[in-house]
Amino acid sequence: MVEFLQRYPEYDGRGLLIAIIDGAIDVSLDGLQKTSTGLPKVIDCFDFSGAGDVDTSLIKKTGTDETNLELLSGKKIIIPQNWKNPSNEWHIGIKFWKEINSQKLADINESTDEKREEEQSSEEENKAETIKPKEEEIFEKINFFDALPKNDIVDCIVWNDGKIWCTCIVPAASAAENIENVKVLTNFRDKHEYCFIFDNISCCATIKNEGNLLELFIPLSGHGSYVSQVAAAHYPSQPEKDGLAPGAQIISMNVMNECNNNENIKEKAIEKAVKNLHCLTSKTM
Questions:
Q1: Where does the record place the region Disordered (predicted)?
Q2: From the CB of residue 145, how many other CB atoms can be counted at a distance below 10 Å?
Q3: At a CB cut-off of 8 Å and minimum separation 6, what does 275 contact?
Q4: pLDDT given for residue 225 in this prediction
């Protein structure tokens, strides 16, 4: 494959848009940042599972000093000066990690442990193949989820800065005085930015319904990420690790959720991919 692309560099999938209808993609992975032509690799994320939905319809305003805001966890924060909000309307919500498919995470880790045991057994018999680096990276992220306390929560703040919708996802256990160090996001499709929750979990967002609904896009398994890397990963300095179409762009369609695991959401994902294909392609070309 590398030799083919060296001879025909333009035949690398550039101009193509691939919809990955699977688990949520980890948008922080190295091979999923840019295409071979420098365009954003993952251009949009849609969550059909509902696992990351946060009700942010409750609106609060700061006090007379316009700085103090009490969140749903009870945490009181001082609004950083660089957070512009002409209306002084702050949409707040809260998300419990145990709501985000804890059983699914347990199933994933169980299957991962079984796979590793099989590989270890095969290695002893000198029959196993070495795990690829990108597989190891995904497995490491999967295992981290299982170590999280199930009662951990995050406060979610949504506001409009006069031009765009913004959101900040704050671990409830973090110190209130460190709020200015928490990354502010907007819709992923607009700036392709993400943050890390608890240091290791990537998270991007979509703000809907005039700020009343926040959709957190969190990878609950490594499968969607692995499929994406096989299909279109691009490593500028390590072309031997590239996927089949390093020039292609990706839309992530998350349909994995044990509480809503039916064919209906998969059909909706396919319809969404087809309907938005022309619009998304035109926007990024």
A1: 109-130
A2: 23
A3: none
A4: 95
Q: Is 211 helix (H, G, I), strand (E, B) or coil?
A: helix
Q: Which long-range contacts (CB under 8 A, 24 or more apart) does 261-270 make?
A: 265/48, 265/49, 266/21, 266/48, 268/48, 269/19, 269/21, 269/46, 269/48, 270/19, 270/21
Pairing label, strands 184-185, 53-55: unpaired
- Asked if 248 and 32 count as a contact pair (C-beta separation under 8 A), the reply is no
Q: Helix, strand or coil for residue 166?
A: strand
| pLDDT > 60? residue 239 | yes
What residue spans of 85-222 are helical by DSSP H?
102-124, 133-146, 188-191
Closest CA to 256 of 103, 135, 115: 103
Task: Give ranges for CATH 3.40.50.200 in the chain.
Answer: 2-50+220-284
Q: Which two tokens mark 204?
A: 């991007």
CB 236 within 8 A of CB 4: no
Please spell the DSSP secondary structure of 124-159, one letter per residue: HTT-PPPPPHHHHHHHHHHHHHHTS-TT-EEEEEEE
The hierarchical CATH code for the domain 2-50+220-284 is 3.40.50.200
The two tokens of residue 228 are 């994406």
Summarize pLDDT for 4-54 with one digit per residue, the tens. 767 777 889 999 999 999 999 999 999 999 999 999 999 999 998 888 999
What's the Cα-to-Cα distance from 224 to each of 28, 199, 230, rounded to whole Å? 13, 21, 10
Q: What angle do CA 190, 196, 201 make, to 5 degrees?
A: 115
Handedness of CA 12, 244, 31, 43 (dihedral sign): positive
